[in-house]
Amino acid sequence: MFIKNVNKKKMKLGNRAFYIVMSISGLLACILLGWLRYRQYHTHAEVLFEQFDIYNNDSLLLSENLQVRKPPGDAERKQEVSYFYFDPNTATAEELISLGLAPRVAHTIVRYRDKGGRFYQPQDFKKIYTLSEKDYQRLLPYIRIASPGQRASSPEAPGYTPKTNHPIDINAADAAVWMLQKGIGAAFAGRIVAYREKLGGFLYKEQLREVYGLPDSTYQALLPHMFISDSTVRKINVNTATEEMLAAHPYIGRRMAAAIIRLRTDLGRYSKMEDLRMVPLINEENYRKIAQYLTAE
User: Fold this and answer.
1) What is the spatial distance between Cα 148 and Cα 275, in angstroms, rounded to a whole number?
2) Which whole-number Å values give the CA distances from 58 to 49, 69, 169, 232, in the listed order?
3) Burial class of residue 124 (count of CB atoms within 10 Å of its CB; 0-12, 13-18, 19+)
4) Whether the model pTM is above 0.90
5) Distance between CA atoms of 295 and 238, rounded to whole angstroms?
6) 71-117, pLDDT tens digit by residue?
7) How far is the C-alpha of 93 from the C-alpha of 216, rounded, in Å?
8) What is the DSSP string of 249-286?
9) How many Å from the N-terminal Cα to the C-terminal Cα in the chain?
10) Which of 31, 100, 254, 293 might form a disulfide with 247, Cβ 3.0–4.6 angstroms?
11) 8 Å CB contact between 213 and 78
12) pLDDT computed for residue 80 by the predictor
């Protein structure tokens, strides 16, 4: 009897210990589960906050980009303007742009003509829906519409002094001399001289076509009058030039300049110009263009 009582007590103690262990285990499991859920929520919240920040930053960047890319108005648009008589039935898009019209307006006029449209009198020019009243009033005195089969001709408009092209040394002419040419104003004259300085000088007349924004019609009109009396150009020494000096040349740029410097560092120096052919970014066409402006002394 005594033994049975002892065994019953042991069983009760064992059951209690089992329950205690299970309770502690359950409590630990709950704590662990709660901690994991907390970490999951906390991580998710961090991601949400990061995404919110990214969204805000992207929105700000998009807003800034939209402000930068906003089409400029008439007062903000800066472009070279040349005044001359023109027939809106025959003027090219480039000629219309040189008159100060936005490219969008110029191409609208050309498309109107391509679809069979025609201007019968100067006032018809106003029916181009993208043309502003300001541009219409500004160009109205210069519109000369010819009858079919005839060229436009008329007396000079008030305040207009016509220009004529004359022989010009493209390596020696300064901005003032360039401005005497037909279709060349202060802006284009400045661009031509600045581009010539960046190059180191013109080797060929065709390089004038590389000047930013210069209409092909203006280039073609100048071509018979251009000449080069001295084709000696300023050269850059690839063994002593800095990356910035090389990158400033229109035919090289930042990436090619860095590649030239890296190969120079590996070789120690360029022993001959042909070593530049080993630069990864320089193909045969690039080499022919830049070799005339570089030296490996």
Assistant:
1) 61
2) 14, 16, 52, 51
3) middle
4) no
5) 6
6) 444 444 455 677 777 888 888 888 888 888 999 998 899 888 888 88
7) 11
8) STTTHHHHHHHHHHHHHHHSS-SSGGGGGGSTT--HHH
9) 117
10) 254
11) no
12) 61
Report residue 176 as tokens: 């003032």
Residues in the chain: 297
Cα dihedral 84, 87, 91, 96 in deg (nearest 10): 50
Residues 6+ apart with CB under 8 A from 113: 89
Tokens at residue 209, please? 């076509």
What does the block give as tokens for 200? 């180191």
Place of tokens 């003027």: 91
C-alpha dist (Å) from residue 72 to 81, 96, 104: 16, 18, 12
- CA 2 to CA 232: how far, in whole Å? 125
User: Which residue has 């502003």 as its token pair?
Assistant: 132
Q: DSSP label at 86? A: B
What lies within 8 Å, CB to CB, of 122 at 6+ separation is: 140, 143, 145
CA distance 213 to 190: 12
Q: How far are the Cα atoms of 91, 136, 156 from residue 88, in angstroms, in the given order? A: 5, 12, 17
Residue with the two structure tokens 């570089």: 294
Q: What are phi and psi of 200, to 5 degrees?
A: 105, 5
Half-sphere exposure of 89 (CA within 13 A, CB side): 18
Distance of CA 125 to the CA centre of its chain: 32
236: its two tokens: 């850059």
